[in-house]
Amino acid sequence: MKQNKSSSTFINYWSQYAKRCITGPISLLKGLSVTLGYFFNPKSVVTEQYPENKKTLKMHDRYRGRLELIEDKEGENLCTACKLCEKACPNASINILTTKNIAGKMVLGRYLYHLASCTQCALCVEACPFGAIQMNPEFEFSHQNKDVFEMVLNQKEGRF
Ligand code: SF4
Ligand code: SF4
To answer: The whole model's pTM is what?
Structure first.
């Protein structure tokens, strides 16, 4: 009885060994076929060669970089300073400072955006009833000076 058991263990071991001897090279050949496929058809390689391709690199459509104001054809931003985006932001990454124009109407003074605390959730974009903001495709945000993450989004219009 004891001899029967040891002989079945022996057979089991060698059958497993034989199986691995066959499946091992097959799996190796499968891997090599992928490598050779890319070697002979380099255009099918999906790995991005960053930073060499920095100038041509296009982010995916749904990628969320940082917040920016949308401008109309005249270069004026669409923001009415209603502050709904500021209220929608869960971590106070937006501060809208208002001012009055010559006609006494409340307008946007400064659109302050704190990129360092922004989580790119885009709740502000969804909350804006005027379609005045969007997440742009920028992706290089590392910097040694944290002050650069404090942004005035409407700065270039000179309303500050
Ligand atoms: S993307 Fe989210 S975290 Fe960033 S400013 Fe908008 S609401 Fe705030
Ligand atoms: S960006 Fe939109 S939601 Fe925010 S203050 Fe301007 S108009 Fe209002």
So the answer is: 0.72
